[in-house]
Amino acid sequence: MPHESSTDRTDMLDKNLLKGDVLEALRASPPAEADLRCMLELAFPADVAEILSELEPEQRLVVLRCLSPENAAEVLALAEEDVQRELLLKLLTKTEISGLLNEMAPDEGADLVAMLPDEKSRQALAGVEPEHAEAIRELASFDPETAGGIMTTEFVTVPPDITIGEALQTLKTSLDQESISNIYVVDAENRLVGVLSVRELLEADPATRVSEEMTRKVVNVHLDEDQENASRMIDHYDFTSLPVVDAEGRLRGVITVDDAMDVLEEEAEEDMALLSGSGVVSVRDPVRRHLRFRLPWLLITLAGGFLAAFLLRFFEPTIERAAALVFFMPVMAGMAGNVGIQSSTVLVRAFATGEMTMRLAFPTLLRQILVGMSAGLLCGALTGLLATALTGEPKIGLAVTVSMTIGITSAASVGTLLPIACVKLRIDPAVASGPFVTTLNDLVGLCIYFTVASILLARIAT
Predict the structure, then answer these.
(1) Which end of the chain, N or C, is more open, meaning fewer C-beta atoms within 10 Å of its C-beta?
(2) At 461, phi and psi to the nearest 5?
(3) What's the whole-model pTM score?
């Protein structure tokens, strides 16, 4: 969809101002649709899509109906998923959905069709232009988590035996396609054999053959490739688009850079949600959904707290001999938990961006152990000095220093090993991080803290 940049939009750039004007027009009785239409057509679709999420359901419908079909389609495509689902399932008629699908790129239309019940999707697609409807059906048939699920079928292809001049003419007649940054060269059976960028096309001699100018080594992905891996390839190679082929090497679609960035952003948000133990939820989701995602991790943390209580009871004789050790227990637990989370977050991010591979597991573990040991020595020494100053007992300070050094080193090791083990077992490393790492490190840290203190105090006493 084209993005307008007219200077007529200047006064509409303030989203808060636009939102206020839209709300004022909607609250009029009846709604001031003429004013709404004027404001909305001058606004950027992305801003209107953002405003939709803050409106009441019926207000959203009024806003969408005040837009031109082209702008309405773009706003709906940019809207949040829960807004899209509500409009499609409850508010828009089948005729309106068909009209919007006609204006959308096939990949955007496929995303919306996937939200509809089978019967309603068939009825909506019946009102779409046959060729466009077929493209939407094809894309909707792919697993949404794969390269096929995020690709578009709107791109430009040329055969290898035509001239550059003829290829330019093909490009000029295909400017309505979603992806025109690269021109893909295919043989008679639609197998991908080369690629030309628009810049290369413009710089080449119009009389030469495409086969003489094209790049024959084309980076591509299979239809079933994971969407995150495909998106990482676009980021790694700094591509604007990536071709998607089937098992026979036939070109089936392309993934554009904007769709790839959306995937990477979604994956990053999901990883951050898993790291925090809150799950992928929206602030507008009902309480039961928040509880469903967060309660399991809270129960794990609670169980860890009970185990910590039993550990403290086991070390009760040590605590009775040196009650001052309890004063520094929260420091030990907090430091171990933070270091563990830092290490696991570094690893989860590295795996997510492709920077980390299993080949680098051992040197990465060693590096994180050294980081933990260095941080442990520094923080342990500072805490030990403070413990000595507060209690007047050097043996307490020594016990705190040694146990904190070992505990923080252990926390860094656990925080590094867990994500590596998860990847090895084909589990999302973010799932086993966050609250799990914190709870485990609390237990290990307390165990190390009192064990080392018990040994040192016993030996110093003798």
Answers:
(1) C
(2) -65, -30
(3) 0.65
